[in-house]
Amino acid sequence: GAVVSQHPSRVICKSGTSVKIECRSLDFQATTMFWYRQFPKQSLMLMATSNEGSKATYEQGVEKDKFLINHASLTLSTLTVTSAHPEDSSFYICSASSPKRGVYNEQFFGPGTRLTVL
Amino acid sequence: GENVEQHPSTLSVQEGDSAVIKCTYSDSASNYFPWYKQELGKRPQLIIDIRSNVGEKKDQRIAVTLNKTAKHFSLHITETQPEDSAVYFCAATTGGKLIFGQGTELSVKP
Description:
The complex is a heterodimer. By secondary structure, chain A is mainly beta. Helix content of chain A is about 0%, strand content about 50%. Chain A has no helices and eleven strands. Chain A has strands at about 5, 10-15, 20-25, 30-40, 45-50, 55-60, 65-75, 75-80, 90-95, 110, 115. In chain B, strand 7 and strand 8 form a beta hairpin. The interface between A and B is medium-sized, with 22 and 21 residues.
C-alpha cells in the first residue's frame, strides 16, 4: 500500500503558541489530502480537504483562520494550529489519496499526531 | 450532507463467536463504503471495503454486505480472536470525502 507519514508524532505546547503538523505521501503523489481530528473515544471528524495548489475546503464549524492548511506540493500538506488552547488537544490524522493509487477513493492514513496544549 | 450511524457502540463476544456491526447512511449518492480497524493511538487500518455496485464481499473471516435500497451496510467477523479486539469504524464516501460512523469497541474474550 501507499505510505503516508506525519511529523511530529507527539507535541506538547503552551497555550497561545502555534503548532505545525506535516503530512507527507512518501511513495506517491497525492492529489488530495484530508485532515481529521479525533477526540478520545470518539470518531474521526473531517476538518478540511485540500488539493495541491488550491485553498483548502473546510467543514462546517471548523475555523479556517485557526487551522491553517497548506498543500504546496503533491507530497506535502501542513496543518498549523494557531494560538492553540487546551480544547485543541486532540489526535490529528491526515490522509492522502490519488486516482492513480489504491482503489476507488481509497484514502491512505498517516500515523497521527497527538497534540497536548497545556 | 452525509450522515453515518453505527451500532452498537460496544460489543463483547467470546472467542470463536461471530460479531456483527451495522451502519446506515443518509446520502443515496454515496458509492464507496470502507471499514477500518483502529487500535489505541494508532492510525485507522482499512480491513475491507465495498462499492455501491456490489452487494457482498468476503475476505477470509471478514465480510461486508450492502443494501443500497435500505441504505445500510454491515460488517461480519466470524471465528473471532482476541487480536480482533479494537475499535471498528464504518465510513461512507461521496465525492471523495469520508464520513465516519461513531465507532464500535469490540472486545473478544478468550
